[in-house]
Specification:
There is one protein chain. The chain is mainly alpha-helical. It has one domain. It is built from six helices and two strands; from the N terminus they run ααααααββ. The protein has helices at about 1-15, 20-40, 50-60, 65-70, 70-90, 95-130, and strands spanning about 135, 140. Strands 1-2 form a two-stranded antiparallel sheet. A hairpin with a 2-residue loop joins strand 1 and strand 2 (about 140). Helix 3 (about 50-60) runs antiparallel to helix 5 (about 70-90) and helix 5 (about 70-90) runs antiparallel to helix 6. The N and C termini lie far apart (about 45 Å).
């Protein structure tokens, strides 16, 4: 589960810079995630869906940053995907371990999409940025 949390953090870092406020939000989100894990492992949450809903609620404060980074829709897909997978666990169709694998695979795909968007945006920015070149003898420096 910690790997899953790292993936989320990495994705949000890819979405943009982390400000002081963002760092505070990250700390609060991590604390809430840890509480979800503890509650689930102690069997206080009776269903896997309840556990995934808890994680979704814990990560909801990340939505603003995800929107700023242009990946808010991907975070929504992640939340919905978790619930859909969890419902399959609750119906006995898959085990929690299989669900963890499916969630990790889903996150990997979403991270790839987010990275592709970031790279495309950087290419557009680079292509539209003015370039100035200076020539000194046989040397040319562009910025």
């Amino acid at each position: 589960m910690k790997t899953l949390m790292g993936i989320v953090g990495l994705g949000l870092l890819l979405a943009g810079c982390v400000s002081g406020r963002d760092a505070e939000v990250d700390a609060a989100v991590q604390q809430s995630r840890d509480a979800c894990v503890t509650t689930y492992r102690s069997k206080q949450l009776k269903t896997y869906s309840g556990y995934m809903q808890c994680l979704n609620t814990a990560e909801a404060p990340l939505q603003e940053r995800a929107q700023r980074g242009g990946v808010g829709d991907l975070l929504n897909v992640k939340f919905a995907g978790r619930v859909a997978i969890a419902e399959r666990v609750d119906r006995g169709e898959i085990t929690p371990a299989q669900a963890d694998f499916e969630v990790a695979r889903m996150n990997s795909g979403l991270m790839s999409q987010g990275q592709n968007r970031l790279n495309a945006n950087r290419l557009v920015d680079a292509a539209t940025s003015p370039v100035t070149c200076n020539r000194y003898g046989n040397s040319v420096t562009c910025f």
